[in-house]
Specification:
This protein is of the alpha+beta class. The strands form three sheets. Strands 1-2-9-4-7 form a five-stranded antiparallel beta sheet. It has a four-stranded antiparallel beta sheet with strand order 3-8-5-6.
Length: 236
């Protein structure tokens, strides 16, 4: 993985660790122990950080930027499993069961990462209940996301799958559901199993119907979520 890297240093890394949900509830002493084992990396956009089949030897935490988790077939076709934002981690599954990397992880934009070696992180897990619980919460969240995706692919048409994806990407902001992250229509198509043209058509239809609006570089969803067509109502 081509990247700039350096051992984490002092208070700057400690401040970063405090903002990461994975390390919520840890004491200053525990964070300092993690800080000593962390290596900071900066990777350019489109860098493949890990590859499917590689040995799992470390955990990564995204400090800034975003990344996509994907699988490719023999012809190079891609399916995006999920998008990861700042504060999220990857590589934890392999640290627990010892299996190789299950997917590629590619930087969507320039990313700053914290990397922790498997042996050192295992020691931290062994002596910290809060960290173990946070890892469990992360895995449960991934499982719920996978269940939602399986459900949408099996039961919804493209209209419903795009609507569900937008809801999943949204967050509350002053009573509104807002999507701040930058997601291309091509990436959305790879996540919902449709063509880019179909996704563009659905997005235009949702905007014209008043379910979404684009303003100031963000997407705002209808205030009343009950009106948002998460179920496959319209057949396109």
């Amino acid at each position: 993985m081509p990247a700039e890297s350096h051992q984490s240093a002092g208070s700057s890394c400690l401040s970063l660790l405090r903002t990461i949900p994975l390390f919520a509830g840890l004491s200053v002493t525990e964070l300092e122990q993690l800080e000593k084992m962390a290596v900071c990396r900066k990777v350019p956009r489109n860098t493949t950080i890990v590859r499917a089949g590689d040995k799992t030897d470390s955990l990564f935490v995204i400090v800034s930027g975003s990344a996509k988790v994907l699988n490719r077939d023999a012809e190079g076709n891609e399916v995006i499993l999920t998008l990861l934002a700042a504060g999220e981690c990857f590589g934890e599954m392999g640290l627990i069961d010892g299996s190789p990397r299950s997917a590629d992880v590619v930087a969507n934009e320039r990313c700053e990462l914290l990397e922790m070696a498997k042996t050192e992180f295992a020691k931290a897990l062994a002596g910290n209940v809060d960290l173990c619980l946070n890892i469990m919460k992360s895995l449960v969240q991934r499982l719920r996301e996978a269940n939602r995706k399986i459900e949408s692919l099996a039961l919804m048409d493209v209209y419903g799958r795009v609507a569900r994806l937008l809801l999943d990407f949204s967050e509350e902001d002053n009573g509104l559901r807002v999507i701040r992250r930058k997601v291309t229509k091509q990436d959305m198509a790879k996540m919902v199993g449709a063509s880019r043209e179909m996704v563009s058509r659905v997005m235009k239809d949702l905007e014209h119907s008043g379910y979404i609006r684009v303003e100031e570089g963000r997407i705002v969803l209808a205030e009343d979520e009950a009106l948002f067509p998460v179920a496959a109502g319209s057949r396109l």
